[in-house]
Amino acid sequence: MSTTHHPPDNLRRLDALRALLAEHGLDAALLHTLPSRRYYCGFTGDSGFLLVTATDAALYTDGRYTTQAADEVPPAVAVIRADVFAAGARRLAEMKIPRLGYEEDTLPIARFRELEDALASTALVAARELIMAPRLIKDAGEQELIREAVDIAEAAYAEVLPLVKPGVGERDIAVELEYHMRRLGAEDRAFDIIVASGSRGALPHGIAGARPLSPGDAVTIDFGARRHGYHSDQTCTVFLGEPSAEQERVYRAVYAAQQAGIAAARPGMAAAALDAVVRDHLAAAGLTAEFSHGTGHGVGLEIHEPPSISGRGDTILAAGMVFTIEPGCYFPHRWGVRLEDMVILEAGGGRRLTTLDKRLETAVLPD
Ligand code: ZN
Ligand code: ZN
After folding, report:
1. Co-location of 148 and 74 in the same domain
2. How far is the CA of 128 from the centre of ligand 2 (A)?
């Protein structure tokens, strides 16, 4: 793997956040999640919070992390050693911030109450969407890391594919994939690898179990790697032996719907409209109830992040966004198929980041 990464421009990102805060009438933002801290100041430790005001930024973290924080964060961000939350809240109270944005979707209620008690004169404003907004557009360095995560996962898949045969357990395949991804430079798997064979393939999120593969199975393998914080995500479905006529028809419909989605993606399009392209394609093949989840999701520092490509996705897609297109059809207690690629949106449309060939002709393995 190449090691010449573009260093993240944390200060430019902080300025982008400050512009959004000003636009929304907020005086500061409290960032408590690891991806937010990492994105805006480079700190990779798993404890602490980042306070961003119009003029400065400070990372509050405890004694275990002060050396690491000093190494990782740019000098413009102060590192404050604190008994994190209580001391941080006291400091915030002294600052008398009128309107403070926070990440409402994940701040524990107990923490929120502590903040409310400590900050009597501060309005706490839900600001997750605003804090997240700059992260939706991946810069060159982020795109490079995502590509590396894809490369690692695909190389691991190539190593493990010969194992996908009758008698081998689902879990064995998942463990081998994880081993090869780590050996190839992944810091971790991107999520619990899904290997769902036969009737278990009808479970969209059936993580790998003890079931050994059998001749005739359809096997759904959903896997990805994490590289310097960035994730990849891809799903293949393979058949052990010739698929039935029904399996062939459904697989081709899912593939066609997926390709139609990739071809239709455009900057300026609502995420829900892209979901509709894929859904309508499957509906035209008589597959409506069988496609029981959204079309895709953003991928970056989190494996699932905005934009959500679903019927309720109100994000307007823009160049630089990275997301999945992953239609599937599930037949309870019988079998299932899902095909997933990652796409980066460019001015002219979507470009696949994942490269594994998913045509039916390549999905039939010997039984
Ligand atoms: Zn996936
Ligand atoms: Zn996915």
Report:
1. no
2. 21
Of the listed ligands, the closest to the CA of 302 is 2
Strand partners, 234: 223
Which ligand neighbours the alpha carbon of 220 most closely?
1
81, 112, 135 — which closes off a domain?
Answer: 135
Q: What mean pLDDT is reported for the chain?
A: 94
Q: How many domains does the chain have?
A: 2
Protein residues with C-beta less than 5 angstroms from the ion ligand 2: 233, 324
What is the whole-number distance in angstroms between the Cα of residue 204 and the centre of ligand 2? 11
The pLDDT of 315-326, averaged and rounded, is 98
162 and 231 fall within a common domain: yes
Does residue 342 lie in a domain region?
Answer: yes
| Distances from the Cα of 211 to the Cα of 168, 194, 214, angstroms | 8, 13, 9
pTM: 0.94
Supply the pLDDT for residue 88.
77
Q: What contacts 353, CB < 8 A, 6 or more positions away?
A: 146, 147, 150, 232, 322, 341, 342, 343, 344
Q: What is the pLDDT of residues 218-257, one digit of tens each?
A: 999 999 999 999 999 999 999 999 999 999 999 999 999 9
Cα of 122 from ligand 1 centre, angstroms: 41
